[in-house]
Predict the structure of L-2,4-diaminobutyric acid acetyltransferase.
Amino acid sequence: MSVQTDVLTPTLRKPRLEDGADLWSLVKETGVLDVNAAYTYLMLCRNFQDTCVVAEMDNSVVGFVSAYIHPKQPDTLFVWQVGVSESQRGQGLATKMLQALLQRQSCLNIRYLETTISPSNKASQALFRKLARDFDAYCAVSMCFQTDQFPDDHESELLFKIGPFKKTELNTN
């Protein structure tokens, strides 16, 4: 006799304007991401729905990816923040959100992904290195922002550039 257990998996969708406050709260609760003004998350929900992902479970936001297509490099998606609630960490949600985003119609012409990560954020570094491996893509790391360029004591930020992606790998849906 086998016992079936129902494992709840978050629903991945585009953000809605009413998600803005929840996204701000999620970022704040992570304790590791830079918390931007609440206005920022409202604008992401209003203007960048096609390049952002919300993970929802039981009517609660449990994950979020904010990203945009680089204005001077239309084949490059810049991932700004990836946040996952503590209850969902270690279950591959961040990877699922990034993969779902890269498979969207809005990302059909994306060949590269960029993000910045502080040197101490080993979890994010591992996430993006894994994403590069999953897509059999190169991952170049270079300095992007030095500590002295920030007005506060913000840690430096490394630029991760992943790609080129093969179109067949990304758009399998």
The beta strands are 11-13, 53-57, 60-69, 76-84, 112-117, 138-145, 157-163. The chain has one domain: 11-170.
